[in-house]
């Protein structure tokens, strides 16, 4: 690995780099998106090539990789949304009504992921937009914040790099609505909240300046304070701070002039109340209570039920990784089973290849499962690299497999966007005649064909 003969190719199914930093992290969190500049720096090294717009498992298979590379690092994230399970006594009509989606639909769309489409926004008979987000993590807060910023005309949405299409549509639907009511549902209590204080505080601050109210029921705060949860609270400073803020929000709950955010606890979805037009009018929920020992408390149905008025339901219940065909034996529960990043060996090398197979490694979400922030991936990737270094040390480190990945793509008629091509796309996206306001970093290109064409790629059919 330390050898100058080592060469690295980065293959991504999108013509644009940066994974979820570009297509997941919220557009008003530019400070987080800045992490992409560290990533860009590595491409100034001539030993690293970028193949954007090439999907492993579709355009190329593992056999192709094994003809080219001694080591393959699986770092393709978790692109599948978890399937929402409704309680056992969900209604007999098992079809999903319109306007019910995994939160990823909204996230992909507002972030301009190619081939994404908007969720359908319908208003209630009273003319309100009632959005229910199931799951209480930071992705839920992102979705809530983007919709609420559009509703209260927060300038930081205008200056963000949310796409023009999403910006205009969100502004249009929220201005048409009498009220925009966003509810975030948690199955357990306040002390088991999965969001972090920074993201929660941003919403609290919004409620203090604009036409937005924020509510937490005091009865649910009280119910959250059972003996086991108070035990969980002891000695954990971040949770203490979050719990204090939740208390402050609850004590100062008020109705907003235009928009409301309500964080609800002890509710678990069990079915839908449907509208005649095929949409949803409410999410039927079981009321829950906490059961079990501290740090392992679970939500248990109480037998009570509650309907939460909803004209749009977003399930923000996590992401799940998918296996690449041929690696099933190493895959379990949405991620690769690994030791320090080592997954296993496969294939026997191809023409000009050495004996033995290619070594497979994993890093990021597909290694650990879909959790952790961008920063969590740094020590995780270091661990994987250290394993690779140890495995290849003493073997000369040189390129043993002779096939060039580029040749395989050319032969197969697959074209790609290289790093220079991406820089062209980047330049166009940053052009001042494309942006809404001067402060907007870029207006993303969302059309796959356009991206491929500008980047010099474009698949040959
Ligand atoms: C909605 C959302 C918001 C988030 N917000 C924040 C935040 O504010 N701050 C923060 O620190 N973290 C945030 N995160 C977490 C952060 O995005 C992840 O920790 C990080 O992106 C995971 O990196 P990864 O490389 O494992 O996966 P990814 O970032 O998903 O990268 C995987 C890459 O693999 C490519 N790929 C997938 N399949 C294939 C294939 N078959 N062939 C070729 N390429 C493929 C994809 O196109 C993608 O570019 C957020 C996550 C989500 C989902």
Automatic annotation (TrEMBL):
Q: Look up keyword Flavoprotein and say if it applies.
A: yes
UniProt keyword annotations, A-Z = FAD, Flavoprotein, NADP, Oxidoreductase
Has keyword Disulfide bond? no
Cofactor(s) in the UniProt record: FAD
Q: What GO MF annotations does this protein's record show?
A: oxidoreductase activity
Concerning InterPro entries, the annotation shows: FAD/NAD-bd_sf, Ferredox_Rdtase
Protein name, entry field: Adrenodoxin-NADP(+) reductase
């Amino acid at each position: 690995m330390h050898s100058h003969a080592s060469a690295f190719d980065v293959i991504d199914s999108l013509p644009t780099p940066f994974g979820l930093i570009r297509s997941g992290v919220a557009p008003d969190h530019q400070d987080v998106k800045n992490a992409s500049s560290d990533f860009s720096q590595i491409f100034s090294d001539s030993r690293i090539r970028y193949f954007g717009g090439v999907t492993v498992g579709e355009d190329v298979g593992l056999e192709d990789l094994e003809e080219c590379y001694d080591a393959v690092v699986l770092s393709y994230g978790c692109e599948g949304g978890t399937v929402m399970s409704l309680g056992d006594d969900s209604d007999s009509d098992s079809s999903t009504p319109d306007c019910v989606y995994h939160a990823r639909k909204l996230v992909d769309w507002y972030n301009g992921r190619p081939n994404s489409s908007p969720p359908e926004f319908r208003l209630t008979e009273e003319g309100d937009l009632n959005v229910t987000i199931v799951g209480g993590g930071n992705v839920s807060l992102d979705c809530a914040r983007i919709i609420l910023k559009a509703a209260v005309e927060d300038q930081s949405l205008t200056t963000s790099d949310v796409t023009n299409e999403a910006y205009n549509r969100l502004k249009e639907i929220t201005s048409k609505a009498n009220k925009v009511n966003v509810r975030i549902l948690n199955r357990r209590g306040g002390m088991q909240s999965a969001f972090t204080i920074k993201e929660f505080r941003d919403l609290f601050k919004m409620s203090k300046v604009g036409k937005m109210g924020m509510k937490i029921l005091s009865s649910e705060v009280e119910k959250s304070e059972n003996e086991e949860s108070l035990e969980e609270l002891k000695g954990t400073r971040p949770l203490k701070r979050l719990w204090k803020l939740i208390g402050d929000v609850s004590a100062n709950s008020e109705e907003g002039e235009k928009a409301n955010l309500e964080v609800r606890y002890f509710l678990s979805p069990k079915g839908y109340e449907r509208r005649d037009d095929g949409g949803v009018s409410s999410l039927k929920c079981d009321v829950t209570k906490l059961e079990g020992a501290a740090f392992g408390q679970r939500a248990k149905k109480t037998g009570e039920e509650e309907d939460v008025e909803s004209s749009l339901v977003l399930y923000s219940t996590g992401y799940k990784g998918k296996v690449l065909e041929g690696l099933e034996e190493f895959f379990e529960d949405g991620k690769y089973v690994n030791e320090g990043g080592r997954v296993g060996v496969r294939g026997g090398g191809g023409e000009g290849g050495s004996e033995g197979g290619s070594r497979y490694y994993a890093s990021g979400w597909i290694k650990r499962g879909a959790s952790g922030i961008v920063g969590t991936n740094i020590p995780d990737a270091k661990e994987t690299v250290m394993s690779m270094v140890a495995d290849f040390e003493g073997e000369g480190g040189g390129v043993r497999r002779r096939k060039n990945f580029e040749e395989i793509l050319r032969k197969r008629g697959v074209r790609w966007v290289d790093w220079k091509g991406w820089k062209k796309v980047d330049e166009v996206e940053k052009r001042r005649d494309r942006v809404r306001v001067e402060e907007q970093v870029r207006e993303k290109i969302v059309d796959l064909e356009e991206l491929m064409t500008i980047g010099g790629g474009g698949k040959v059919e």
